[in-house]
Amino acid sequence: MRVREGVSGRRKKQVPVPRERRLRWGDASLTALLAAQCLTTFVAIPIAASDAAGRSLLDISHLVFAGVCAVALTRNLWIRAALLLSLAAFAAGPAVWNRVGAGLGVEAPHELIALVAFGFNLLVTVLVARRAFGPGRVTAHRVQGAVLVYLNVAALFAIAYSLIEAHSPGALRAAGSGMLATGAGSRTAELSYFSLSTITTAGYGDIVPVNPLARSLANLEAVFGQLFPATFLARLVALHLAHTTPAVPAGPVLPHDPDPSHGKPPAGS
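The structure assignment produced for this chain is given below.
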């Protein structure tokens, strides 16, 4: 591998060029993943609550996540295989999952889908966090990766709420009707909205946790939502500013004059 040389011609111990390019591509991929997550959270999930087109957007987002993570964020074959298998599970659709659920004796196959989604999002979150908070120069891409971790954690909590609601109906209640929506797309949109409201501590009060476990998770998410931006994200931003702010050149150093009377006007003048 080539190693870059310093200005003086002496060889410096630096990162080999192919690895350096791989690191840059890995950092840049965090921006693409953040765009995909924003598309999923703020566009695809709300649309999927009332329109089938949102399902296509969700599939595209899952494809982007799996592809980018497998190519840019890991070289482990097992992790790549897990990402691709999760993507295949999402692409299978409800019909296949109904057959799988019938074969396993599970009446609600959407719980299996939720477990696969939780594992997929958890794996992506770990890969992104390793890249964003790993060693190396803190770039703007890594700061955006930390924001992606924040949004991914909200998605993980939303899936956890859906599993609690599936096992204990009425664990979360809407202020008006008292029950959450029964449709899969509508319920996903409501729980995603509740999770984002909780992690940002907006707390509009239109959806409230009733089950003790759901309340505990909501408290944990609210604590994380306050501490993560104030500690980890703020630290990355500070390091990024320190790495990008040019150093102020020091002024000329004046020689020290040991004679204290030097430069003073003569007496009586």
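Interim note for the steering committee: The beta strands are 172-174, 207-209. The domain at 17-95+108-242 is CATH 1.10.287.70 (Helix Hairpins).
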